[in-house]
Amino acid sequence: MKSQDESQNISERHTLMTLRELSAYLNVAPSTLYKVVVRGEIPAVRWGERRQTVRFRREAIKAWLDDRDSLQHINDLK
């Protein structure tokens, strides 16, 4: 049986964030973040008939931020 910490850890890893939630988390405008999504420069999950629904896996975003100076790159787009 999983401990509460393990369950919370798993839940956090698999949490999907909306564009607005991620923009608040990164402190950038949603429109700026959307530009990065369209260019494929940020890990995103897209689905739907025309792949218009976009979500972000919290764990993937954390790794993306750790991998490079991603926030500086996003801020350069403003």
Q: Describe it for me?
A:
With 78 residues, this protein is of the alpha+beta class. Helix content is 56%, strand content 13%. It has 5 helices and 3 strands, in the order αβααββαα. The chain has helices at 4-13, 19-26, 30-38, 58-67, 70-76, and strands at 16-17, 45-47, 53-57. It has a 3-stranded antiparallel sheet with strand order 1-3-2. β2 (45-47) and β3 (53-57) form a beta hairpin. The model is unreliable at 7-11 (pLDDT under 50).
Summarize the structure.
The protein has helices at 4-13, 19-26, 30-38, 58-67, 70-76, and strands at residues 16-17, 45-47, 53-57.
- Main sheet, how many strands, which sense, barrel? 3 strands, antiparallel
* Mean pLDDT metric: 80
Q: How many DSSP helices?
A: 5
What percentage of the residues does DSSP assign to strands (E)?
A: 5-15%
What structural class do the secondary elements suggest? alpha+beta
Q: Sketch the topology as an H/E string, one letter per element.
A: HEHHEEHH
- Outline, from the CA principal axes? globular
**Proportion in helices:** 55-70%
Cα distance, first to last residue? 47 Å
